[in-house]
Design a protein that fits this description.
The chain is of the alpha/beta class and about 450 residues long. It has 18 helices and 14 strands. It has helices at about 10-25, 35-45, 60-70, 85-95, 110-125, 130-145, 155-170, 205-215, 220-240, 255, 260-275, 285-290, 295-305, 320-325, 335-340, 345-360, 375-385, 400-410, and strands at about 5, 25-30, 50, 80, 100-105, 175-180, 190-200, 205, 245-250, 280-285, 310-315, 330-335, 365-370, 390. The structure holds ligand C2E and calcium ion (2 copies).
């Protein structure tokens, strides 16, 4: 069933449109303002959007601009509803990527005519051949503008790169969320957003494979922005539902720091999704900062003044960790899973993990231990008073809907009897939420 989102602040007009559309057997969802409209577009992914131009706070132009930056929303037909039939208004909307206009007051036939025309055009676009042509054209444009010569790119990489471009337009990305639990209360305090790419021909492609490629081609800027927007919209929804302290952590990579618009974009995303800055954590790594430390530091300081929190990811695996502790406005250290793994048996890991926790405490930073897979590791971290954990023992990365269920059910980390000699053998209830592995079965390993 074709799903249409109606964004209109005037209730009588909105109700009338909804009635007309329902009579034609469309599935209709409605939003009473622009902010809500953006949230619903991201969570419901409609087939077509009808949107009023004049609305308080976020007007129709801003709604369109926000959605068109998002790869998933980039191709959804968008029709403006306007009371003013002025040429300048038309042009402004078309430049932002609107597909059509319907001027108020309109007849039922005018409205349905515009919708049908757009849906037909969209269906033609989706034909594999048209799509392939579109891709090749895009690819050629891009190569023409790129300084990299084609013979330097291997055919396999080129093929993956074409798929990556395709993925952006086709909405093949999804954001999964891995919950983080408080080691004192056991409660879920937040989640890390982790991007997933499912391609119908290739199956799941790991972020470890496509993030570096996205970095090289510059696609990371768009992908990263889309992840941020999706994650902030979800966190905002959870806060509105009463999960008051929930924060979302989003990974930032080097290519995003090279974007001079980064802080402005993040501020805009926070406004659009109505997420308080303190509920967003940006995860940075040493490698994401090294390209231009001065610019990265300025960007992070600006965001920090707004209240956004900063976590240093994969701590200890880079080359300049201690210097970075002084240079960047950090709130949190994430102990890399390489150090957490087997922490009770490996004397080096034990020394490193406990020292990082002590160091963080002295610097007034919080500590998240990543990749916690066993009860013994959990017991160790609790004993050393680590603040939060994240790992397969508690939960794999899950979909937004699964995370919502976990919060609604108040799923908590259980602490079995942690007396040292028993820690390894005490049974622990298996994590209930799972992520599908590449072959579609429940994966046991990462
Ligand atoms: P990361 O930021 O260090 O993310 C943690 C990775 O560890 C995730 O892998 C997660 O699935 C995995 N993990 C979590 N708990 C466990 C555990 O108990 N055991 C094991 N073995 N693994 C665990 P994932 O999702 O494959 O992501 C890999 C990397 O790709 C991430 O490492 C991050 O650097 C990058 N990445 C993922 N999503 C994004 C994104 O949206 N933007 C950017 N820039 N990078 C991303
Ligand atoms: Ca991370
Ligand atoms: Ca990490």
């Amino acid at each position: 069933m074709t799903k249409i989102l109606v964004i209109e602040d005037e209730q009588p007009v909105r109700k009338m449109i909804v009635k007309i559309l329902k009579r034609q057997d469309f599935a209709v969802i409605e939003a009473e303002n622009g902010v809500r409209g953006v949230q619903m577009a991201l969570s419901e992914v409609p087939d077509l959007i009808l949107c009023d131009i004049q609305m308080p706070e976020l007007d129709g132009y801003q709604v369109l601009k926000t959605l068109r930056q998002n790869s998933l929303m980039a191709t959804i037909p968008f029709i403006f509803l306007t009371a003013r039939a002025e040429k300048a208004d038309f042009r402004a909307g078309m430049e932002l990527g609107a597909d059509d206009y319907v001027t108020k007051p309109f007849t039922q036939a005018e409205l349905l005519g515009a919708i049908t025309a757009r849906l037909q055009k969209q269906a033609a676009m989706k034909q594999p051949f048209t799509q392939a042509l579109y891709q090749v054209e895009e690819k050629l444009n891009e190569l023409a503008n790129s300084s990299v010569s084609t013979n330097e790119i291997s055919p396999e990489r080129l093929a993956l790169e074409v798929l990556l471009r395709h993925a952006l337009a086709k909405g093949e990305f999804q954001v999964y969320y891995q919950p983080q639990a408080d080691l004192t209360t056991g409660k879920i305090v937040g989640a890390e957003a982790l991007v997933r790419w499912y391609n119908p021909e290739r199956g799941y492609i790991s972020p470890a494979e496509f993030i570096p490629l996205a970095e090289e081609t510059g696609a990371i800027v768009q992908i990263g922005e889309w992840v941020l927007l999706s994650a902030c919209a979800l966190a905002s929804k959870f806060l509105a539902a009463g999960f008051s302290d929930f924060h979302v952590s989003v990974n930032l990579s080097a290519g995003q720091f090279a974007d001079p618009e980064l802080s402005a974009k993040i501020i805009k995303i926070l406004q659009t999704t109505a997420l308080p800055p303190t509920n967003l954590v940006l995860e940075i790594t040493e490698t994401s900062l090294i390209r231009d430390t001065a610019t990265a530091s300025a960007t992070l300081n600006k965001l920090k003044t707004l209240g956004v929190r900063i976590a240093l990811d994969d701590f200890g695996t880079g080359y300049a960790s201690l210097m970075y502790l002084k240079q960047f406005p950090l709130d949190t250290l994430k102990i890399d899973k390489d150090f957490v793994s087997n922490v009770t048996r490996d004397p080096q890991n034990k020394a490193i993990a406990s020292s990082v926790i002590q160091l963080a405490r002295k610097l007034n930073l919080k500590v998240v231990a990543e990749g916690v897979e066993t009860e013994a590791e959990l017991a160790f971290l609790k004993r050393y008073k680590c603040d939060f954990i994240q790992g397969f023992l508690f939960s794999r990365p899950v979909t937004a809907a699964e995370l919502e269920n976990m919060l609604a059910e108040n799923k908590c980390l259980s602490f079995p009897d942690f007396r040292e000699n028993r820690a390894e053998v005490i049974p622990f209830s298996a994590p209930v939420k799972t992520e599908k592995s590449e072959n579609g079965s429940q994966s046991q390993q990462k």
